[in-house]
Structures are given as C-alpha cells and as structure tokens.
C-alpha cells in the first residue's frame, strides 16, 4: 500500500500535485500533510489517501483526476 498526498484546487477543478509515499515514509508524509495544510489558501484541498496503487486511487477518487467536463460526462 502507498500513501498519496493530493493537492487540489476546488474552484478550478484542477489537480495541483500528487506525491506518493511508501508505508515506511508515513512519518514524512504526515509532516508534509501538516505543512501543506498550514500554508494553503482556503480554496485549496489537501488530502492524504491510502491505496494499493495510483490507478486504484484514480478509480476510487476520480474527481481529483478528471476535469469537470469528464465528471459530468460531456
């Protein structure tokens, strides 16, 4: 399993960054999450998710990886 730190611009519907961490890097991942959360503007979403792979994450949390048009099926 991996941890994924995702930064997402809600109003723009745009993925800003994805950083993958191994389970062994969990302490660093948590520190990076706290740092990004403390410095972000209100409209930026920062989340940490656990998944087997990036492909699995794209399937289960597609809104971070698709455009608004793709989500709407246009």
Low-confidence stretches: none
Could you give the count of β-strands?
Answer: 3
Shape, principal axes of CA atoms: flat
Instruction: Report the radius of gyration as a whole number of Å.
Output: 13 Å
Give the end-to-end Cα distance, rounded to a whole number of Å: 33 Å
Q: Overall pLDDT, averaged?
A: 92
Taken as a percent bin, the fraction of beta residues is 25-35%
Order of strands, widest sheet = 2-1-3
Describe the largest sheet: 3 strands, antiparallel
Oligomer: single chain
Can you write the helix and strand succession as a string? Answer: EEHEHH
**Helical stretch count?**
3
Helix content: 25-40%
What report would you give on this structure?
Strands 2-1-3 form a 3-stranded antiparallel sheet. The protein has one domain. It is 35% helix and 34% strand. The protein is of the alpha+beta class and 74 residues long. It has 3 helices and 3 strands.
Helix and strand arrangement:
Elements: E1 2-9, E2 14-22, H1 26-39, E3 44-51, H2 54-60, H3 68-72
Antiparallel strand pairs: 1-2, 1-3
Quick gist of this model?
By secondary structure, the chain is of the alpha+beta class. Helix content is 35%, strand content 34%.
Give the tags.
alpha+beta, three-stranded antiparallel sheet, flat, 3 helices, single chain, 74 residues
């Amino acid at each position: 399993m991996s941890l994924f730190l995702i930064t997402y611009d809600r109003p723009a519907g745009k993925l800003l960054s994805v950083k993958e961490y191994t389970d062994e890097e969990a302490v660093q991942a948590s520190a990076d999450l706290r740092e990004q959360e403390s410095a972000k503007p209100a409209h930026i979403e920062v989340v940490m998710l656990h998944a087997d792979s990036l492909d699995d994450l794209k399937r289960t949390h597609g809104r971070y990886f698709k455009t608004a048009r793709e989500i709407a099926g246009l």
